[in-house]
Amino acid sequence: MVCSSALGFYWSAWECCEHLERAEQIDEDEPFGGDRDLRPTRFMIRMLKSIAKFVIVLVVMTVIFSMIWGELITDRLYNCTDAVGFDYLQPGNWVHGQVAFVGHVLAGRSMSEPDIIKEGWSAAGLWGLWLSFFILSLVASVLLARKAWVPRGSAGPDTAQNVGPTTPVGTSERSAFPTP
Fold first, then answer.
1. Position 171 in a domain
2. Does residue 166 form part of some domain?
């Protein structure tokens, strides 16, 4: 149920961005992009579109990094005896109380035992790793928010697209073939 509602949200947001891409297209022949009164509206559409793309990519990156954190970091670099999952979404709550440093991290230990961190790592090292994941997700979100998701030429079925050559009749290319 949660997965289907999340996919519905992403699909709706994607459709919203496609609709905004189509609405933003302007007539390139007119100076200043058309009517001057529409400039603030176009700017607001671009901003709304960029913010929507940023949020979508940030949520997707958060889900991806949560899965990576759960698979590659939790129970390999540290183990908290009273963890409830989603450790990437709870920064700093990875280990607390008594902390022991061990050569090999074991999962499924008793809550009476101390939390453990792999030798060579520390809570500050985990913070640095989490911060690098977070900064990477922000950078990816900013870069992808600035990129056009729908190419200008594919705005919809009613957009005319040139499929073949556009050489007018009677030009030098046509005159290369003699007519009877």
1. no
2. no
Residue 107 lies in a domain: yes
Q: The domain containing residue 100 runs over which residues?
A: 2-25+41-150
Eight-state DSSP code of residue 161: -
Distance CA 11, CA 145 (A): 16
> Does some domain include residue 21?
yes
Q: Which residue has the tokens 């600035």?
A: 146
- Structurally, the chain folds into a number of domains equal to 1
Q: Are the C-beta atoms of residues 34 and 166 closer than 8 Å to each other?
A: no
- pLDDT by 10s per residue, the chain, length 180: 444 444 455 556 556 556 555 555 544 445 455 555 555 688 888 899 999 999 999 999 999 999 999 999 999 999 988 878 889 999 988 888 889 999 999 888 888 899 999 999 999 999 999 999 999 999 999 999 988 877 776 555 555 555 555 555 555 555 555 565
